[in-house]
């Protein structure tokens, strides 16, 4: 069963951590967001909206199609100046024309069947010279082997059918670049980033994260019995008595509106 983003049971699944400082360093070097207006499309629980604000963005508007996610984001961002959230779709954000300097779409496009409408909307809301930054996993990113650092790889080693699901929904570089150029973006460039997802104090901390399927839509394809088996599978492959630093490999696409 796929994740229901509109269920109150999943309200906090994308709000339960903070963006890693390594991600912030990488983004700051790419875009220098200080003083910029940023739209975080598909913002979930606001993790990265808050991170953009901390990088000095003058205003950050998070947009998500789930009212539950928006509610969680508002809770999480309480007291963070210049951050607001609203319900809207990637294809229809309700943002004004040319009102943003940066549009950010993290872990969004693999949920979409078609990129054209989403990228056209980003193009519309960006001011001339504005940048679109997409962060998602390609099939190659998704198929990196499991290790005590790359926990996600164990999902597919334990349940190969998940790899088929993952491969079918992940964007290829060619497809993303083609769609960006089609709607008018220029100079699309792709880079890879290893991002620390979270550091767990011990295996019990990781186990809780996995059992709750926190921020991991792919785990909603497993029933509870299968999930228990996966947790045991991972537990046999990591040091359960020491902190566990989990990292994920991502592809970042950066393109400019002329």
General description of the model:
Helix 2 links the parallel strand 1 (37-41) and strand 2. The chain has one domain: Vaccinia Virus protein VP39 (Rossmann fold, 3-Layer(aba) Sandwich), CATH 3.40.50. The protein is globular, with a radius of gyration of 18 Å. The model has no long low-confidence stretch (mean pLDDT 94). The protein is an alpha/beta fold and 258 residues long. A seven-stranded mixed sheet has the order 3-2-1-4-5-7-6. It contains ten helices and seven strands. Residues 40-134 form the Methyltransferase type domain. This is Ubiquinone/menaquinone biosynthesis C-methylase UbiE. InterPro entries: Methyltransf_11, SAM-dependent_MTases_sf.
Strand order of the largest sheet: 3-2-1-4-5-7-6
Stretches where pLDDT falls below 50 for ≥5 residues? none
> What class do helices, strands and sheet pairing give?
alpha/beta
Task: Name the quaternary structure.
Answer: single chain
Q: Nearest-angstrom radius of gyration?
A: 18 Å
What average pLDDT do the residues reach?
94
Strand content: 15-25%
Write down the domain tally.
Answer: 1
Share of helix, binned: 25-40%
- Strand elements, count: 7
For the largest beta-sheet, the strand count, sense and barrel status come to: 7 strands, mixed
Termini separation: 42 Å
Number of helices: 10
Question: For this structure, what is the CATH homologous superfamily?
Answer: Vaccinia Virus protein VP39
Q: Tell me the name of the CATH class.
A: Alpha Beta
The succession of helices and strands, N to C, reads HEHEHEEHEHHHHEHHE
